[in-house]
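P.,

For your records, the input lines for the assembly:
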Amino acid sequence: MKDNIRYVVPYVPGEQPDEKNMIKLNTNENPYPPAPGVKSILDSYSAEELRLYPSPVSKDLVEEIAALHKVDCDRVFVGVGSDDVLALMFLTYFNSGKPILFPDITYSFYDVWADLYRIPYKRPKLDDNFRIVPEDYKQENGGIVIANPNAPTGVFESQETIESIIEANKDVVVIIDEAYVDFGPATMMSLADKYDNVVVVRTFSKSRSLAGMRIGYAIGSKALIKALNDVRYSFNSYPMTRLSIQVGAESIKDEKYFNECVEKIKKTREWTKAELKNLGFTFPDSQTNFIFAKHEKVSAVTIFEELRKKHIYVRHFNADRIDNYLRITIGTDEEMKTFINEVKEILERQ
Amino acid sequence: MKDNIRYVVPYVPGEQPDEKNMIKLNTNENPYPPAPGVKSILDSYSAEELRLYPSPVSKDLVEEIAALHKVDCDRVFVGVGSDDVLALMFLTYFNSGKPILFPDITYSFYDVWADLYRIPYKRPKLDDNFRIVPEDYKQENGGIVIANPNAPTGVFESQETIESIIEANKDVVVIIDEAYVDFGPATMMSLADKYDNVVVVRTFSKSRSLAGMRIGYAIGSKALIKALNDVRYSFNSYPMTRLSIQVGAESIKDEKYFNECVEKIKKTREWTKAELKNLGFTFPDSQTNFIFAKHEKVSAVTIFEELRKKHIYVRHFNADRIDNYLRITIGTDEEMKTFINEVKEILERQ
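Structure tokens returned:
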């Protein structure tokens, strides 16, 4: 029987501690609640309707996303978080047998999906400042995936850099993963209009405070979105719950609240950057809702473990080139003050 | 670019009309609302929590399912509807390169998943009474999938029949898809205890009136469930929304309400069977929440089209051997009375 089974090394998600009064800065969740309209949806939702299947095309949600980005509905794909969207993209777009390309330091799920679907891949190295070297993406390949801003580094690459890579790769699908884009300076969404081989991926889990509802989406050319939907409907006809569709649609409508939350987080991030610098940390300039930092003297593991004892959770990756870094999610002002104070004490004790 | 893309013929789900006063008997939904506790969950849920990722192991839901079936939590797998569970099983369990086996008439998604993952398959014919011929499953194969009761026929096979197939196939994974089992005479769940190569799949979409929340699950040996979870976590770490987990768990707690709904549907089914027989329909004896019937004189397509004009929706499959049948979901007593009256009029007009 063992020969029949696909064995994989699973992705290990960030731990999900569930303690009262913990400070959870380890999975890049938003510290603020979702738009107030989301609560109204739950309060007024008729539970009886849950007996019915959802719209297979996630109608209300797709329409709101299409309106937000000023594209037709047939250029929008939605899924169960951007992980679902990306996993289905790997299955759909990377069938040439040639290696796909993504940086050596990036979202740690890309190689897991490639392994799962037995897609060969190469991982060009980011330079010493964690920047992409565009020349590395001008070799023969079966597709490209770039997170921008990148995770877990927080680094943003300019449209010029991204477009130079696309220009050299018009025969393969290029995925731009914009999970953190709302905290950064610019989106590459216009490239999905300009190039029919480019798909841009987004999530409701970070800037929209809806990690718990599992909503992600992609915008691309009609042909690419159709191929993706065909695979989707061959996998699961009803991926989104009725509530995800309504809650997601509602959250888009409140642009003012959305902008306020994003601005608060960016402000807290800049404050946190200044404090960390004073304490002897260095980090690439983050354009996300986290900071990827290392200390000049004290090891990441030490700080990680000491913070844990105080019920403050950050993320540490036990991986080549980044094992002395911590990824610190931006929480509320109060959470970050507590965090900085605890770090200060930890450093003083070393 | 086209060479890189996986093109598939997508599954076509039953249409989802959304009209006031329609009678929707086409996708085997439950006519009764979910357990009253589900409404309480929505009413009291703190929308703020949606900013957080769900439990990656769907903790509360898995614990309730494990308690329901008196198994350990590590023998339970949950997914986004049983379609998600089954799709991941095909990917995980059927990697031998040998053809898998399932009946020629069965759930129409099985060949779609096999095609999607490029798994070879053979489809032994059901006999003229839509019964499985166990001998057909005693050839070399890479795995077996049996829906019991079967869809769209509604036919239930005895434990003796199912077990004789398992006994001849201990080296491959045997999946028993029990989507409709709560409306039938017996479950094969004990076979998942007895044989470590057997997995039983269930859904909350039919008997639990929660199609809109997308909840399915499987029970199998620890080793099989671990392999499945490893693939799951390599695909999407957080498949279930926070609300699906809570709503699903709550629904299991109300056994009395669950039994009442199931009994009402079974009673209505038996009434509908008698009425259809009087009108000249024949059908295999359904043990599900639908009846798969053909008329002695009037074609299925004619009845289907005429019912549509009256805003009554049933399901017709344009497929070999079954294109003169209609699959009629059991609704409320009132809905079925209207349905029978309309059919009577249609037949009189022919």
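Two observations worth noting. Chain B has two domains: 2-33+256-349, 36-254. Chain B touches chain A through 84 residues (CB under 8 Å).

Regards
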